[in-house]
UniProtKB/TrEMBL annotation:
Name this protein carries in UniProt: Uncharacterized protein
Amino acid sequence: MHFRYDPDDWRPAQGHSRLRATTSRLKPNSILVWDRQPYRLIEVRDRDEADWPQNYRDAWVKHGMPAPATWSYRPRVVVLRHDDQPQSKPLHLLCPDSTYWYVLPEHYWVCRTCQELPPCRHVHNEAVMDRAAERMEKEMAIMPGVCHGCREPISSRQKSFTFPGPNLIRPDLGDDSAIFHTRNDCAGSMKAYDERWAAAEEGRRRYFYCEGTKTLHHDGTGECTAPDCLAKGNLADWVEHKLWIQHHPRSGPEVQGCWCLAAAAA
């Protein structure tokens, strides 16, 4: 699974990766962030299996019906009270055990005007709009035949890939105009566009992702379990796979039977 940082997502200015915890690791009296407000944790309770909502039951069956007491997605009740309103009615939230929460230090600050944890909605929305305007300016500078990733011209000697259909970044350039260098510096932009391109039409398959398992043999050759895998020719080095296995003499007993390791084991 890949996690991507999105600068437009809201996160408290006081928070960082070390100030996050899953529901299972929360400690009573901690200060958590809910709806951009500071809340004091009263307790975390298990939800009786007989009272699980239907969506949790369906997910439990889909995951192979694991032990309910240890299943990471099991529903739990998080009881909170607003930190500045100690007499207020507690808030009961139902969430998976694996949900991540922002945990604040005892000394935190809030916006004087909004009484929200910084950045407040006003400041955050302004920042999002500024980034959108900056992206728009850069996108409008893209010319025909220019890589949509690095924004540099693509020469006849350079390898590239063109996405068919409407251009999702510059529709005014016409169909079959979204082009990217097939090189390391542009791979991230190309694959991000690939996801966007596939999502633009129902049932459309990504070019640079395969649901199969790629096996890489000790001699450098390989194959995929998906018969229609697109990792061939010029695209072979750029297609990511859901799973991949690399055979090596020190890989372990599960791959020792492969023909590619016979010489290495001899």
